[in-house]
Amino acid sequence: MKANTRYALIGLALAIFATGALAVDPFASSDDLAKVEAEERRLWDEANEFDDIMRRSGQLYHDQAFVDYLQGIAERLYPELKGHVRIRMLKSPILNAFALPNGSIYLNQGLVSRFQNEAQLATVVGHEIAHFQLRHSYRQRSLLKNTLLLRAVVQMLGVPSQADIVFSSSMFGYSRELESEADELGYQKVAAAGYDVTETPKVFQHLIRETKTAEVRERIYLFSSHPKLQDRVDNYKKLSKDAPDDGTRNTEEYVQRIGVIRLTNIQNELSMGRAKHVLLALCDPESLDEYPPEIHYYLGEAYRQRGAMGDDISSEFAYLDAVREAPNFAPSYRALGIIYLKDGAYAEAEAHFARYLELAPDAADLAYVVHYLRLAREKQGKS
Amino acid sequence: MRRRAFLAALPALALAGCANWEVIQAQTPPYEDDTYRIDLPEGWVRAMFEREAVALTRDGHHLELIVVQRKPNKKAFKRIKKEASKDLLPSELAELALSEQKAADPALSTLVILSNQPALLGGRLGFRLHLRFTTPKGLPMEQLVYGVCDEKYFYSMGFQAPSFHYFPAYQPDFERMVRSFKLLTASET
Q1: Residue A299 is part of a domain; what is its CATH number?
Q2: How distant is the Cα of B101 from the closest Cα of chain A, in angstroms?
């Protein structure tokens, strides 16, 4: 099936689903959570099952200090839901976040890495928990119940049945009405927690820029759809219009806490060939200061992988910067060695490969570098 | 969530009934097309696909799966929009193969590279990747992927099985098969 037809069908399905939502009261306290009806309880059970699968899958980020930090933000935003909302981070570079009906909130590492400060992170956390407090999964699920078209759409996209819960919670996002409700409640919570509300639209503006520039095709995901992102920007701009910018941003602490995660995310992006995303993340020279000095190596890798006109020179400069800024970081020497080997500068190649082997005698790719070193020596007539 | 990406589509197609199955026996001749030849392991069951791939299993593709594929260099890494080339160093080819696999399944965050080294395949220098990952249900799996390219094609040979029992039990069959891989003259012209 052609992509256009597929998306037209999805649009039709969503249009049918979005014709009205079941009216239910939001969770105002722990007492409300205890009184969940059987039908909604079943939805929670499905969500619990999904949580179990994720726990076993090895895809959860396990740095407890950072998970506690995320949890702390959630509880600062929604103190009345303390103990009922659990924040988890997935080791995925895809820009996504979703809320399950049982109060499990999943944030992808890729999304968290893009925020510039805690106020921006709180905006997304606030928005997602709003879906839970307003019981949007239950409300939307009621619309979808017994709808054959839903099953057809799910199957058409190849989403296995165990992911139905995510389907109804996130992958297509909620209806426009429910998303706007989440914006509004999330915004109120961000403001009440003392965050700088002028940061709220910036999260989504930044993501729009990234998804457009990198030609992101993950448009079924909640935060990667341009129209949905634009809706968020419009809503948050409207809500924060005339608001003072005297709230907390907590930039310094956030940058410090996110350092390792950002670097890991850059490595993940590169390992998936997503060089354009990395270049976007690192395009602001000031942002490089927020990373460890070896970030220049990863910048070089991104240029090399992209391979556009002039990128070969940019990558070489970035590797040289990395050697200067992080002289004991081995991969920069290997990268330069390969450039010199291909250019026929065998003496330079030999020197760089030798340095790499000195610095990383147990490297996983040792056999390659030993082979390249031997090749560089042979080309110089050495034994 | 998607299943692990590695060659998963191939057995799915086979089970859907669009492939011919054949039990490999001692007298079964090597698989050969116009550019390469390879011995198939005795006791395995083969499904051959139109898309220039050979898939083999013994007890079902969830338990052990070997896939040999040949792709034109220009279409070697479609997901990451990269081409294979004989000018690439083997480590660069391995990197592209790995990126292609990860791009196929962004949830493949548990993938660990156990080893990555050069390997001689059909007289040309290629790569050998040994990987481990965990399925969504928590089952540890291992993969071996060999790859090499010539002037026209990128050839890959992969073996995947659960780490427990199946991988060590059938790795020798796979390694023997890889050692028999030969590029025929036609592809080198």
Answers
A1: 1.25.40.10
A2: 8
Q: Which of A57, A94, A367 sits opposite B118 (nearest CB)?
A: A367
CA B130 to chain centre: 12
Q: Residue A46 has what pLDDT?
A: 82
Compute the distance between CA of residue A207 and CA of residue A224 in angstroms, rounded to an integer.
8
- The whole-angstrom distance between B69's CA and the closest CA on chain A is 21
Supply the pLDDT for residue A249: 94
Instruction: Using 50 as the pLDDT threshold, list the residues of chain A that sit under it.
Output: 1-20, 145-172, 218-225
Chain B, residues 84-143, CB within 8 A of chain A, namely: 89-92, 96, 98-100, 102-103, 106-107, 109-110, 113, 115-118, 125, 134-138
In a domain, A249, yes or no: no
Which pLDDT score is estimated for B18? 54
Note the pLDDT of residue A282. Answer: 87
**Domain end (from A178, A211, A240):** A240
Average pLDDT over residues B100-126: 84
Q: Is A365's CB within 8 Å of B2's CB?
A: no
Alpha helices, H only, A145-225: 148-156, 164-166, 176-192, 200-213
Lowest mean pLDDT among A78-87, B75-84, B134-143: B134-143
CA geometry: angle A255, A259, A265, nearest 5 deg: 120
Q: Which residues neighbour A63 within 8 Å (Cβ) at sequence distance 6 or greater?
A: A260, A261
The CB-side HSE value for A159 (13 A sphere, CA atoms) comes to 18
- Concatenating the DSSP letter of every residue in B92-159 gives HHHHHHHHHHHHH-TT-TT-EEEEEEEEEETTEEEEEEEEEEE-TTS-EEEEEEEEEE-SSEEEEEEE
β-pairing, A86-90 with A104-108?
Answer: parallel
**Number of domains within chain A:** 2
Tell whether A306 lies on the interface with B, counting CB pairs under 8 A: no
Could you tell me which residues come within 8 angstroms of residue A4 by beta carbon, excluding any fewer than 6 positions away?
Answer: none
Q: B9-188, what's its fold? A: Protein Transport Mog1p; Chain A (3.40.1000)
The structure's pTM equals 0.79
Minimum-distance CB partner of A162 among B1, B99, B100: B1
Q: Where are the domains of chain B?
A: 9-188
Domain of residue A226 covers 3-240
| Token couple for A253 | 């602490």
From the centroid of its chain, how far is CA A317?
A: 29
* Helices A64-77 & A251-271 angle (0-180, nearest 10): 130
| Å between A55 CA and nearest CA of chain B | 9
**Higher per-residue pLDDT: B19 or A117:** A117
Domain boundary among A240, A270, A297: A240
Distances (CA, A) of A5 to A9, A153, A168, B30, B112: 6, 12, 21, 44, 38
Report CA torsion sign: A374, A375, A376, A378: positive
Q: Is residue A248 part of a domain?
A: no
Rounded to whole angstroms, the Cα distance separating B140 from B167 reads 10
Residues A235 and A263 in one domain: no
